[in-house]
């Protein structure tokens, strides 16, 4: 007589559950890192708006704004999103600083004006999720 197949054995089911558990243990932390990097990317793009305002001011006036200049004096208002708490700059030197709500990460963009070549920017960040150009 032929014996009909009855289904999966307990060992086969346990192996499948173990494989799914291993894949989930690897995938979930990678996904979380990926989303934090994407959120940090939003922080950089929001800071780029302030960068653009400084670049436009530099083209129009022939130099970077004075260190005590307010952001609104050069035509910039700080946008806020669900991830970015504030964008502003230091009063002792012109440094654009953006602060994120994700763990208090900050990005500092420091301009250097060179006559003839314009503004070059140096980026510094306080997060392990920052892109390599900002570390």
UniProtKB/TrEMBL annotation:
Keywords: Fimbrium, Membrane, Methylation, Transmembrane, Transmembrane helix. The keyword Transmembrane helix applies. SUPFAM superfamilies: Pili subunits (SSF54523). Gene3D superfamilies: Glycoprotein, Type 4 Pilin. GO terms for biological process: cell adhesion. The keyword Calcium does not apply. The chain crosses the membrane at residues 7-28. Pfam families: N_methyl (PF07963), Pilin (PF00114). InterPro entries: N_methyl_site, Pilin, Pilin-like. One of its GO terms (cellular component) is pilus. It comes from the Bacteria. Belongs to the N-Me-Phe pilin family. This is Type IV pilus assembly protein PilA.
């Amino acid at each position: 007589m032929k014996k009909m197949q009855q289904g999966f054995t307990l060992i086969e089911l346990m192996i499948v559950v173990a494989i799914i558990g291993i894949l989930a243990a690897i995938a979930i932390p990678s996904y979380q890192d990926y989303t934090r990097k994407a959120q940090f990317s939003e922080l950089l793009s929001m800071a780029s708006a302030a960068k653009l305002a400084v670049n436009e001011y530099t083209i129009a006036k022939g130099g970077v704004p004075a260190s005590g200049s307010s952001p609104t004096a050069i035509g910039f208002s700080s946008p806020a999103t669900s991830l970015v708490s504030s964008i502003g700059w230091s009063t002792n030197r012109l440094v654009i600083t953006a602060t994120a709500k994700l763990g208090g990460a900050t990005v500092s963009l420091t301009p250097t004006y060179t006559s003839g070549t314009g503004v070059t920017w140096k980026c510094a960040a306080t997060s392990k999720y920052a892109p390599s150009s900002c570390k």
